[in-house]
């Protein structure tokens, strides 16, 4: 694969990752994700539980949860009138891995082999 083909592939990766990058680029959403990842609860957490651990308001937590859901990073499970939020293990986060791997491959092919070293 030539340099332009690899650049086109990386461009496509960036397009595919846009929603995820925007969603996880926010510090508040990162804090919410860390709370969800750090819980021992396998069934998910409710907004109130996330609010307690992040010290954010309920409306703020709900707003950020919606963005994370829209990006496919978390899922919601309803139980009667209660909503439980949890990490989507089959999420779009895998697209980030592809992006990073493609960039790494590009750098190996076109920069490291030219005798140019980073750092």
UniProtKB/TrEMBL annotation:
InterPro entries found in the cross-reference section: ArsR-like_HTH, HTH_ArsR_DNA-bd_dom, HTH_MetalResp_TranReg, WH-like_DNA-bd_sf, WH_DNA-bd_sf
Keyword Repressor tagged: no
HTH arsR-type domain span: 9-107
Gene3D superfamilies for this protein: Winged helix-like DNA-binding domain superfamily/Winged helix DNA-binding domain (1.10.10.10)
Alphabetic keyword roster: DNA-binding, Transcription, Transcription regulation
Pfam entry (one): HTH_5
Protein name per the record: ArsR/SmtB family transcription factor
Organism, scientific name: Cytobacillus mangrovibacter
């Amino acid at each position: 694969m030539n340099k332009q083909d690899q650049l086109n592939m990386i461009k496509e990766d960036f397009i595919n990752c846009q929603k995820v990058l925007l969603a996880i680029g926010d510090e508040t959403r990162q804090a919410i994700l860390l709370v969800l990842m750090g819980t021992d609860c396998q069934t998910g957490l409710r907004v109130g539980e996330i609010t307690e651990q992040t010290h954010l308001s309920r409306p703020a937590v709900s707003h950020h949860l919606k963005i994370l859901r829209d990006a496919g990073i978390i899922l919601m499970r309803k139980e009667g009138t209660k909503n439980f939020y949890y990490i989507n293990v089959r999420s779009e986060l895998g697209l980030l891995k592809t992006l990073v791997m493609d960039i790494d491959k590009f750098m190996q092919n076109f920069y490291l082999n030219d005798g140019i070293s980073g750092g």
